[in-house]
Amino acid sequence: MMLSTLTEGQAAPSEPEEDGADAKVIDIDSARLKVKKSFARTTLGIEKDTLFPRLSYSELKVGRVLGKGGFATVREILTITPKKEFCNQGSFSFRSWADITGASNGTAPSQDEEQYVPDFDPDFDESEFQSKKFIADYCTGRHGEARYVIKAISPEVKRDASKFLRAAMDMAIETQFLSVLDHPHIIRMRAVGNGDMFDKDYFLVLDRLYDTLDDRIEKWILELKRAKTFVGKLRGGKTKKKKLFIERLSVAKNLASAMGHLHGLK
């Protein structure tokens, strides 16, 4: 969520002078090219290529809305039912999508430059199905709570061509970052939607965030106040305050570890 907030203010390509369907296609192509060129200028994830399964919306059963931002809506995923007929596109790789061999910025790679060529796997469709099945098997926690969420561009944003372009670019950049981040205290991307990132039905499947740091701080303040009351002191307030202090230190340590990981990326 932090990453998507950081990218929401990014400007979209200028509006074309032409009207009609052709102008819309040109706009989307320009936005797509801008994201690819942005990736070509950075070394972030250049040595890492993580594959993510692609899911169709029909394979998901979604529940209530958990949050809504400037352009996207987050809903809980109740169940995932993998279907083999949707395992024909191959797993998703941002690195391959961005075409880091040089074609994305209009230049061909030199003869001395190592080119990235995905390994061919004759059983790739089955591999993707098994990846989906793994996610489906762990879709809910021990108490039946949803462990994953779907993040997609909100319907009202899709109806506005200009807003949709900015939102699609934000989602593409967020996909880029999440595809290379691998840390126990940073939210993880588990899968993506079928099709291109600039399709209106594109979405991300992410780990569910059960609360935010702001929520946790408010909870700590309330528990600390209770521990300081007369009744709280009789019920082990001193021990409770010590546990809260240890918990806050642990969260601070985890947060620092995550920030250190982000700053260490090249």
Automatic annotation (TrEMBL):
Record-annotated membrane-spanning stretches: none
Residue span(s) of domain Protein kinase: 60-266
Signal peptide limits: none
SUPFAM superfamilies named in the record: Protein kinase-like (PK-like)
InterPro entries in the cross-refs: Kinase-like_dom_sf (IPR011009), Prot_kinase_dom (IPR000719)
Sample GO molecular function, one term: protein kinase activity
Region Disordered, annotated ranges: 1-22
Domain of life: Eukaryota
Name the record gives this protein: Protein kinase domain-containing protein
Lineage, opening ranks: Eukaryota, Sar, Stramenopiles, Ochrophyta, Bacillariophyta
